[in-house]
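Record 1 of the preview.
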Amino acid sequence: MKKRLIGAVLALFACLAFAESVNTGRPHVAIPGFTNKTDDSSFDTPSTTATESLDLTIRLLGSYEIVSSESAPPTAADKDLLAWCETESVDYVLYGSVSALKGDAQEYALAVFDRAKGKTTIRKTAKGASVLDVFSCADTLTFAVIDAIAGRHVGFGSIAFEVANPDASEGKAVVAIDGVKITEGFGQIDRVVEGSHLVSIKQMRDKGSREIFLSEIEVTEGETTTVTVEIPDETTRSRAKAQGLEEGLVFVEGGTFTMGSDSGPLDERPAHAVSVGSFWMSETEITQGELYSVLGWVERNGYSQKKTGQRYPVILSEWSFAIAYCNARSAREGLTPAYTIKYDKVTWNRLANGYRLPTEAEWEYAAKGGINHDSFLYPGSNDVTEVAIIPQTSNGNGYAAVGTKKPNSLGLYDMGGNVYEWCWDTYKGYRRAAGLSLEKAPSVRTRVIRGGDSLHGKAYVRCTTRTYSNRSLMIDGTWIFDTNHYIGFRVVRSVMESEE
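->
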């Protein structure tokens, strides 16, 4: 029952249009929960389980502070709840009951009291005939409340786990969703609200715990999303480390920097502090030679290249081709691929040591020289002609071989101009309370591209300039590609704890 209620009640609070808290911190929520009023002790356990699920779910959200409900009034009269909330500085009370009706029937109730409005704003009921109806009534009641609050249908799916190498398992696994522990072991988790969730798995061992999985998982209504978990093998990890890094990667030490600009276009605002971890970044844009050596498919899966040659940047017509290259190169070098690809859905395993696309924050941090905190307008210089291939510097010849202009202070070439570069992120506005470099990337059709290209002017080369492209450049209903941008990419690798 606990599993079934967790996801459902999560949607209830996620959808609540809570008024701004009268407190200076997070809204305070008290959860008296489901009270058994039937005088039948067989309903005690279901009532207690439902209350525990409510409490766990609110903690899982991480947006509300759970306060004790021990002194809450025994009655659910609005005036009593209001007086108590004002005395205890509680913003919301979530309460329910199981009551006896005539015969063997029961009434289930679930309600939300809102201190700001001074009354119970949501109240739903359902009827059951015996203790055997607890599960179905609880589901019916919870879904009715969710839909009433959200003003729309809220869907649920499931997350299942498949261990690729169960023989490597040592100790128990603890699964957390969005930062809150949900279960132990790899059992299926049902009734998870549709949408994107950050799933973490820690392996608990005698010598301590280690995180073996961390990835955003997309949950679809009515479907089960299967997550493949590979438990790291220490021998494999050591061998991969011993192989070292291929030439052509530049170390970028992590730090905090100011992302965006308060004086640029609206999508660059507001300027905000962002922290990124250390990573390795390819010295140049990925070349045709590099791509062909890994995949052998430049002509088959990208554009027919406008120019051909081992040192020319590759031009791709699909964001997903860059993703595929990252995984293929990782596999070739004995690294753990960063991405799981299922149809058009891509999830990123943030604990993997393989190649991946940079986040938009990582890209801008590197363009600005990382810990050097370059103050240049363009990556590496205030003189765009020194560092970028753009129409004014290409003499009409289009993009050029990589590395022909001056690098920035980190030794990265062509961060501005030549070809745009795919990033991991979905294009969206900056959040004022940023501070994180690992933004969620929902399954939508646009992705950030950075750096400008040889088709566009110097305004697009600025370190803070943002733009985007569809994941596929093929024009709908045709076999024609949109050639308004030349888009390539460069790769990064996270610096793992063992490499620091």
